[in-house]
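quick one before i forget lol
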Amino acid sequence: MLVRTLLYNVLFYVTFAVMAVVLAPTMLLPLRHIWFVPKIWAGFSMWLHRTICGIGEDIQGLGNIPDGGLLVACKHQSTWEALRLVTLFPKPAFVFKRQLRWAPLFGWYLIKFGQIPVNRGRRSKALQDMAAIAAERVDQGYQVIIFPEGTRRPPLAQPNYKYGVTYLYDKLNAPCLPIALNSGLFWPRRTFAHRQGVITMKILPPIPPGHDADTFSAELQDAIESAVADLNAEAIRQYPAVAAAVDKEQTAGLSVS
């Protein structure tokens, strides 16, 4: 598996570099004509992941996705969901760290495709600026995607939801689509190795607009975390390599990385 992971990582970055350069002229075209660009890259990266690493996927609840602009709150455990969400939604707009705008090539694409930067150091002003851009994106039919905990979290770690997702829900007057998954058990953060099996993503029923902040926050976290617990338990039961990794890290007193 180590060799497969190494091969995948090399091809992942080489593929991005080649596609980013070859397709760069498309950025001169109107945006409506070039949504295929990120979808080709993300889709090919996912195909490489399935083919080389032998990790499948099971996407549940596709019928829960409403049409048009909305807020998407997705559990974040690995790189996998960032790629998969690009292919899942017609016009995804991720909330991302502002510093990534200056990354060569990658930052140019983020700007062109209307992604939403956030300056985490500015706190309340950052929330206001983020919400203003997100509201424009929802009006334009984008699916605004935020990771409620702000960063990748170990699969079995205690949840740590930030206020940003609740603030956006309150300001956007749009449905919020919760998404649970167990990707971190197969593609762990901050580690090199992958584990074979099937990653499950579960798209939950949307939360309609209009709830007060406390009600929404509690409903969102309960929906996502309950589903994540079930998905984790099923993966641990079904895949010995996952169960062994969980046992090892629990014995060491750590959350799964």
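fyi The chain has a mean pLDDT of 91.
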